[in-house]
Amino acid sequence: MKKNQSLIIRSASVEEDLIVAQHFYQLWLDNDVAPDVIDDDWLSTTLDFLVKARQNLSFQAYVGIIDGEIVGSVSSQIFSGLYPSPFKPSFRQYGYIWNVFVQSNFRRQGIGSRLTNTAIDYLRSINCSHAILHASPHGKPVYENLGFIPKNEMILEL
After folding, report:
1. CATH classification of the domain holding 117
2. Is residue 155 included in any domain, yes or no?
3. Mode of pairing for the β-strands spanning 69-78 and 94-102
4. Bridge partners (DSSP) listed for residue 134
5. How many angstroms separate the CA atoms of 155 and 147, rounded?
6. Which end of the chain is more exposed for a tag (fewer CB within 10 A), N or C?
7. SS3 for 15?
8. For residue 50, is it within any domain?
9. Higher pLDDT, 153 or 27
10. Per-residue exposure over 41-54, b if at least 16 CB sit within 10 Å of its own CB, e if not
11. How are the residues of the chain apportioned to helix, strand and coil, as percentages rounded to the nearest 5?
């Protein structure tokens, strides 16, 4: 951000789902995923997901705006889990942060950190006990600086 620019972060409206979805697509490209492995129907799949996540998982996206232009976004929701949870939400209710995206010409200015902190605050407000995210190599230092504990997820390619 230039000296006279200020960042405004606000809840994304439903009308901005297209921008959030486009950021999600660009995030993959920026992480060296080849466009030919992304499903041709990625946009409708993502938009459908946002509708269902809003209905069932307390989904909320936020946008970062500088001089009237959306320069980044973040998405957050209740983590739906990989298996059924036997716990009461008061004991363990995971929130998930995804799609932390900042346009390339605005990166390394703290915008990603501020967007992530906004998502963390939202997850706290809906009584999540933990915030989970999967970090790209570029994002990992940002999240570690925010207090995320690096963990190892074990994966076996089949």
Report:
1. 3.40.630.30
2. no
3. antiparallel
4. none
5. 24
6. C
7. helix
8. yes
9. 27
10. eeeeebeebbeebe
11. 35, 20, 40
What type of residue is 99?
N
Cα distance between residue 141 and residue 147, in whole Å: 10
Instruction: Report the candidate in 154, 93, 157, 87 with the shortest Cα–Cα distance to residue 123.
Output: 93
Residue 158 falls inside a structural domain: no
Adjacency order of strands within the sheet including 7-11: 7-11, 60-66, 69-78, 94-102, 130-132
- For 25-74, how does the pLDDT look when each residue is reduced to its tens digit (9 = 90+)? 999 999 999 999 999 999 999 999 999 999 999 999 999 999 999 999 99
> Is the Cβ–Cβ distance between 70 and 11 less than 8 Å?
no
Provide CB contacts within 8 A for 101, sequence distance 6+: 23, 24, 26, 27, 72, 73, 74
pTM comes to: 0.91
H-type helices in 12-133, by residue range?
Answer: 17-30, 42-56, 111-125
**Domain count of the fold of the chain:** 1
